Amino acid sequence: MSTFKGLPKDFFVFFKELKANNERAWFEENKQRYKDSVVAPLSDFITAMAPRVAKISKHIVADPRPNGGSMFRIYRDVRFAKDKSPYKTHAGVHFRHALGRHAHVPGYYMHFATDEVFFGGGIWMPEPDALGKIRRAIAGEPKAWKKVVEDKTFAAAFNGIDGEALSRPPKGFDAEHPYIGDIKRKSFFAMTESTPKVAQSPALLDEVEKSFRAAKPLMKFVCDALDAPF
Question: How buried is 171 (Cβ within 10 angstroms: 0-12 exposed, 13-18 middle, 19+ buried)?
C-alpha cells in the first residue's frame, strides 16, 4: 500500500545538481541518494496511481518496479547524440498499454524536471504501421476525430493535440482534409502543465488522475485505430 505524500524536496535538488555535474563520477557518488530521493518516491507514486489508472482502463499498466516497470531509466542513449551527457536531467514515467513494453504504444506519460512538470496521454512516435492506422482513422472518421478535439473536458484540460509533424501531407492523404494538420503528425498526445510545487504534495495524484481522465477521448480513439482495447 502506498503512503505517497508528494515527491521529496531533494528529488528536484538532485536533478538541479545533476545538471551541473552530469558525469559518471558525480553520479556514482550520489547513486544511493538517487535511489532514495528519486527512485523510491517515484515507485510510491506509481503504486498510488495504479488503482486510479485501473479505473480509467484495465489495459494500461502501472508497474512500480525500478527496472522493467513504468519508470524510465536515467541513463541516456548517447550513441548517435552530439550531447554525450550520460544522464537525463529529468524523471519520466510511462503507464503503457498492455500492447507493448516500449515507449511507442498508447499510454499516459509524466515528466518531472526542475523547470517543468507535465503529464497527459496519447502516443509518441508510433511505428510506421501504427502511425498509418491512426492517420487513416482520422482521415476516414473526421466526425469521430472532431468529437475528440472538441470534447469539453478534453478542450478545457489541454491546448489541443500536440506532436511533431511533417511539413507536407503524407503520401495518399488529401491536403485539403479538414484535419490535415493532425494527419501530418508523427505523434499524438495532449499534456497538462503543472509545477514542482504541486509535484511535492499529495495533490499530484488528483491532478494526474484528472489529466488522465480528460485524455480518455484521445486514448480511446488511438486504441480503436490500432484495434486495441481501452
Answer: exposed
